[in-house]
Amino acid sequence: MADRDPQIEIDTASPAPSPAQMAPPAVAVAKPRRKWGKLAAMVSVPLLMVGGVVWYFYANANNVSTDNAYVQQDKVSISAELTGRVVAVGVRENQHVNAGDLLFRIDPQPYKIAVQQAEAAIAAADVKVVGMETDLSTKGADIATARASLAYAQEQYNREAELMRRGFSTRARMDAMTQGMAAARGSLANAEGEATKARAALSTSQIAPGVNPAVLAAQVQRQQAQYNLSRTEVRAPVSGVVSKADRLLDGQMMMSGLPAVTIVVSDKSWIAANFKETDLDHMRVGQPAEIEVDAYPGMKLKGHVASIGGGTGSEFSVLPAQNASGNWVKVTQRVPVRIAIDTTPGRPLIAGLSTHVTIDTAAGPVSAAATH
Question: How far apart are CA 32 and CA 42, in angstroms?
Fold first, then answer.
């Protein structure tokens, strides 16, 4: 066949392959891996999770917490005690003021005039007192005159009576002497009454010995006018930050009792935390608390329970819930708890900031030394 097909060439030079070479290549057999590592991981992870949950539960079993808690600060609402026009403003919004700083001034001119009117009333009362003293002196002279007239009438009556006894006088003259003596007695009584009245007008009371009531009334009127004049300058009663100062404008008409500005006492802060009623079982005044402020991540403050509210939040709402209807649904109530801050914050606290409060109900009251 090879001779008839020239295209087929037989390589006689190359040797024939050996049986070992013609055998198929050996396939490497992998050893089976151990499955204990995977099994351990599958078992340990759930155990760690369960252990973590158990540890967290026992570690926090005595802690109660709430994020329904907010920074609170005293807020003093300042209003004008007088009605008048604002002529000067000494502060602006969010400005820090110290106690005694001028907030605003009301036009003092009308109240200066009131002081002058009161001083004029005092002068008029003094003049009136001098007049009454003079009148009392005059009444004394009238009494002396009336007594002399009565003595003369008595003497004339006695003379006529003696003449009448001897028969040298008439009944008509005797009646005239009697009438004259009665008139003299009446004049004396009238003069003494007028003197008593004048003396009473000059009398003083135990409230202000030695001071006539008319003068005292005028002096009180002056004190009131001076007090009103001093209240035309409205000053800060406490130190803090000015807020709601939009009414403080030059020329603004300020009404008495109308809030004009608010001062937030920023150096006295506490936490108003609203805990569920189910968290109050072991809560006591004095227990330590940890405070986290949402505005300042990482800042933790120490505090303690200062007081527990006397009623739930719904009890003090404008419209308390009425549960007498048939569709009543029980809702867990919130009780306000006041948390005192024991440590000095590293950042300024602002009224209304949200916080997270955790109370350790297993701990005893915080000692006084630990709060400083």
Answer: 20
